[in-house]
Design goal:
With 594 residues, this protein is α/β, with parallel strands linked by helices. It has helices spanning 7-31, 38-48, 65-77, 96-105, 140-149, 158-167, 171-175, 187-192, 198-204, 223-227, 265-273, 285-296, 301-309, 327-340, 351-357, 368-373, 402-410, 417-431, 449-476, 480-499, 502-532, 538-560, 566-583, and strands spanning 53-56, 82-87, 109-117, 126-134, 183-185, 211-216, 239-247, 250-257, 280-281, 314-316, 344-350, 379-386, 392-399. A five-stranded mixed β-sheet has the order 5-6-7-8-9. The protein has a four-stranded mixed β-sheet with strand order 1-2-3-4, with helices on both faces. Helix 11 runs antiparallel to helix 12. It starts with 6 loop residues before the first helix and ends in an 11-residue tail after the last helix.
């Protein structure tokens, strides 16, 4: 009599069967014939039969709604009809998908099909593209040349530069900014984003001489060649800025400047774009233009703030917003401030503009900046703001009564930093008993020496803890939003490279790596210097060092995700910028206090 398998044998057989089943399922997943895009192509053809435009599958990830809106506006006015389908299903090799789309629509024009498909063997989707031309004087070689021209950052977006590459309708308008009308906004930009129009450019640069500016969806061909006509006859103290769509909800800017402009091109790029690799989110374009205008204006930022505080208790520079505190709330907080102390005023001013206009270094005395702003010796607090990607307060300068200066020193805000800082200031003023300006210049009560002593001791303790934790904090306080945008942009560029012929993509990446290696030693030395720098004196100095280390981490991230040779120039400029800022840190505190 044959005996059946025991418990151990049955368990082994079950495990083997389960493993075999898993392999069969995985093999089926990997080896099954790819799904055809017929269903999505049919849906795209139905939508695009109504006219030029773009159709995107709901789960297509490599483009955002703002870019889609701009594409639709641009294609609606282009002379050469362009129809684009963005799919999430497999498409055949070659151009069969675009040819099928053209046949289904049955209208003249250029047809482009892009797809992205997630696979179980990669974190990033695989991508492919196809194109076809039907009864228009366009060749696929033209399409290929325009795609190659868009590799690099900043270089624009292929799907938005293509209409100008085919029709040459925007480049002449951009060139015309060298004439009587120095400002131009692409009608498609205004159609997609109504707040971005020619009036915005004129108003932003009112009173700023010799500025030329163009804001467009995308220019075809070589970017330097497209920009060159803007520079024709540019005065020695003139600036020309070309802003076009780049990627991921953002524009990018390139500059030209005459020899008498007192700022480097990298300074202009940093002010308008947060770094040498410029990044202008749609909603922030008005603020970024205001920052550039303030940098180039013949009027000092502090003078403008002084005049404003003569009329109202709170002034917020037009280049600053926290995107949470509205004008009604600011007005209400200003009324509270005036009621608490009619002599008080508060100004929020852009730190990078002040720093550059001061020659790279702001006054070291904590009251100096506020004294420039304070009208007639009033109590004034100036909060300097890093205005990019949501913004945050960097430093505080205050002048006037001792209690007010102390209150301003403790005022703090986080995400809604405008409203929160003002609310915090009002709370501190109330705590210190500030109700009205002191008569005869006498200092108002400060709440008692015991309270003041405790707060001073607490401040010293916090600074000591910050010094101990600074290396760890610097590694973890990298500006996540900006890093995420750079990572996504690099991923998109790599996706574009993946769609190019393998030999061409390999050549472009190799060129980028060779160029970047020349900066690696500089990056390493800069990192070593940032790690060894002694703790600067004062809370403001500590915050500046934290910011430098955070910015350095971001530059390392850009280097790690390098996707084009053009990015290397931005890395060099960032290294130079961080070097200059490192040299401007306050001297270290004495060893006895460490």
């Amino acid at each position: 009599m044959r005996k059946g398998p025991g418990p151990a044998g049955r368990a082994a057989r079950s495990a083997a069967l389960a493993g075999l089943t898993a392999w069969v399922l995985l093999a089926g997943l990997l080896l099954a014939p790819p799904a055809r895009a017929a269903e999505q192509l049919a849906e795209a053809a139905d939508a695009l039969a109504a006219g030029p435009g773009v159709w995107a599958a709901e789960d297509y990830e490599d483009i955002d709604e703002q870019a889609l809106a701009l594409m639709r506006a641009r294609y609606a006015e282009a002379r050469t009809p362009v129809r684009v389908a963005l799919l999430t299903e497999e498409i055949p090799e070659g151009d069969a998908a675009a040819e099928e789309l053209a046949a289904r629509v049955g209208e003249p024009g250029v047809y482009l099909v892009f797809n992205e498909v997630h696979t179980p063997v990669s974190d990033s989707p695989s991508r492919a593209y196809a194109w076809a031309v039907a009864d228009v004087p366009v060749s696929t070689e033209q399409l290929s040349e325009e795609m190659y021209a868009r590799v690099g950052i900043p270089s624009g977006h292929f799907l938005l530069s293509l209409p100008d590459a085919l029709d040459n309708d925007l480049r002449p308008a951009v060139a015309a900014t060298a004439g009587a009308e120095p400002f131009f906004v692409d009608p498609a930009v205004t159609a997609a984003f109504p707040e971005l129009d020619a009036a915005l450019l004129r108003d932003s640069f009112a009173g700023v001489p010799n500025v030329r500016a163009a804001l467009v969806s995308g220019l075809g061909g070589d970017l330097a060649e497209a920009q060159a006509p803007m520079l024709t006859g540019l005065p020695d103290d003139g600036v020309a800025v070309l802003i076009q769509w780049e990627d991921d909800g953002s524009f990018a800017a390139v500059f030209g400047a005459g020899p008498d402009v007192p700022f480097d091109i990298s300074d202009l790029e940093t002010v308008i774009g947060a770094s040498a690799i410029t990044d202008l989110p749609v909603r922030e374009v008005p603020q970024r233009l205001a920052l550039l205008a303030a940098l180039l204006s013949p009027t000092e930022v502090t003078e403008t703030a002084r005049d404003a505080l003569a009329e109202a208790p709170v002034y917020v520079h037009p280049g600053i917003s926290d995107w949470r505190t509205g004008p009604e709330e600011l007005a209400a907080l200003g009324e509270e401030l005036a009621a608490a102390d009619p002599a008080a005023g508060v100004a929020f001013l852009p730190h990078p503009v002040l720093e550059l206009r001061a020659g790279g270094t702001l006054p070291s005395e904590e009251s100096a900046l506020a004294e420039l702003v304070a009208p007639d010796g009033r109590n004034v607090a100036v909060f300097t703001v890093d205005p990019y990607h949501g913004g945050h307060v960097r430093d505080t300068s205050a002048t006037g009564d001792a209690a007010f200066v102390e209150a301003a020193g403790w005022a703090h805000g986080s995400e809604a930093f405008l409203g929160e800082t003002l609310t915090d200031l009002l709370g501190e003023m109330d705590r210190l008993g500030i109700a009205e300006p002191a008569a005869g210049g006498a200092e108002p009560a400060t709440g008692g020496t015991d309270d003041a002593g405790l707060r001073t001791a607490a401040q010293i303790l916090l600074l000591a803890v910050a010094a101990l934790l600074l290396p760890l904090l610097a590694r973890n306080l990298t500006p996540h939003g900006r890093r995420a945008r750079r990572v996504r942009a690099a991923a998109r560029r790599r996706g574009l490279l993946a769609a190019l012929p393998a030999e061409r993509a390999a050549v472009l990446l190799a060129e980028a790596e060779r160029a970047a290696r020349a900066t690696d030693e500089q990056l390493i030395r800069l990192g070593d210097d940032l790690a060894r720098v002694p703790r600067p004196a004062g809370a403001a100095g500590v915050r500046r060092l934290q910011r430098l280390r955070s910015d350095y981490e971001w530059v390392l991230d850009v280097r790690a995700h390098l996707a084009s040779r053009e990015e290397v120039g931005g890395i060099r400029k960032d290294i130079a910028r961080l070097r200059r800022a490192l040299g401007r840190l306050p001297p270290p505190t004495g060893t006895s206090g460490d």
